[in-house]
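Lab notebook, design round three. We kept the backbone fixed and only want residue identities now. Task for the bench partner: fill in a sequence for the structure below.
Input structure tokens:
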């Protein structure tokens, strides 16, 4: 490998560096304490995690006695565990957003396990996919508008955790009425009902685990299951995250607005905060101003006193 400055690194040097990194990872893993339910292997080459004896998604049993099912779950567990930084962030964010998502799932009679779909979709972050899907639940603009979401250059409700979760719940409920299987509901959220319908028709099977899908959809339910395992018991998969390092819930109160706000920075200042924090709580506000639709009332979250200062971190001078 040659860098721009002409430095040349041999394959042997790269291999040595890789061994050092792996040795560090293994040493860290072996030295971790906690409820790690998988015994550390004797060598770096055999670092793997034992699959659970049984696995359920939304109350539906995953047939781990089938080699294809078992190996698919194994792949996603390993992929999730060894994607260190992003998985750690997903675990930390889950603590912040689960109370919001769990409440809405329960209100809509959707199984609690569906909160892990948001991890598979976005790792609980308002990301934008290459195709233009947005938010925790990766909603396309056209689909969102069809379901009544306001999506424009000023307001984009796909960035609103509560509203986008309710959108997802509506999709889940309609899909369950169609398939009668929560596993197929999850698959259809990823691949679309049309593609799921087509594969059911072509292959003559009605179980997700017996159907061949395109790779993304074929991996999706197993990816969700892997996040369920890791997020629900991080220590068992080598993630020793102290309780005080988990991201806390954001405390706020709500202000209703039905008239134009010409300057959201000034609006924030009126409530003792700033535009940066206002946007943190209201990412659906896409401009530094708000022009409401006629007859529509908007709910803006304003931070409660002390929200920004969690008190979890103390700075000391040595």
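Proposed sequence:
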């Amino acid at each position: 490998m040659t860098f721009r400055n002409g430095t040349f690194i041999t394959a042997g040097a790269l291999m040595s560096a890789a061994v050092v990194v792996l040795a560090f990872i293994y040493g860290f893993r072996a030295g971790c304490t906690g409820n790690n339910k998988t015994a550390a292997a004797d060598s770096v080459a055999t670092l793997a995690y034992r699959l659970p004896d049984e696995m359920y998604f939304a109350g539906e049993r995953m047939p781990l006695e089938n080699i294809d099912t078992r190996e698919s779950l194994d792949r996603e567990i390993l992929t999730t565990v060894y994607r260190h930084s992003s998985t750690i962030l997903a675990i930390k964010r889950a603590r912040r957003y689960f109370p919001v998502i769990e409440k809405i799932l329960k209100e809509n009679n959707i199984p609690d396990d569906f909160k892990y779909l948001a991890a598979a979709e976005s790792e609980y972050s308002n990301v934008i996919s290459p195709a233009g899907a947005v938010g925790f639940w990766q909603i396309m603009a056209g689909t969102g508008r069809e379901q009544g979401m306001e999506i424009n250059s000023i307001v984009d409700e796909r960035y609103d955790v509560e509203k986008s979760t309710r959108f997802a719940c509506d999709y889940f409920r309609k899909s369950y009425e169609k398939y009668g299987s929560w596993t197929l509901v999850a698959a259809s959220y990823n691949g679309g009902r049309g593609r799921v319908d087509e594969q059911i028709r072509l292959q003559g099977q009605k179980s997700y685990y017996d159907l061949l899908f395109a790779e993304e959809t074929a991996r999706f339910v197993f990816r969700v299951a892997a996040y369920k395992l890791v997020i629900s018991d991080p220590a068992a998969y080598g993630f020793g995250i102290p309780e005080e390092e988990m991201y806390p819930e954001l405390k706020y109160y709500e202000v209703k607005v039905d008239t134009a706000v010409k300057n959201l920075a000034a609006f924030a200042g009126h409530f003792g905060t700033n535009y940066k924090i206002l946007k943190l709580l209201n990412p659906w506000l896409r401009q530094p101003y708000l022009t409401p639709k006629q007859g529509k009332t908007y709910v803006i979250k304003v931070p409660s006193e002390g929200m920004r200062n969690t008190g979890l971190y103390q700075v000391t001078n040595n």
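Keep this in mind before ordering anything: The longest helix spans residues 84-107.
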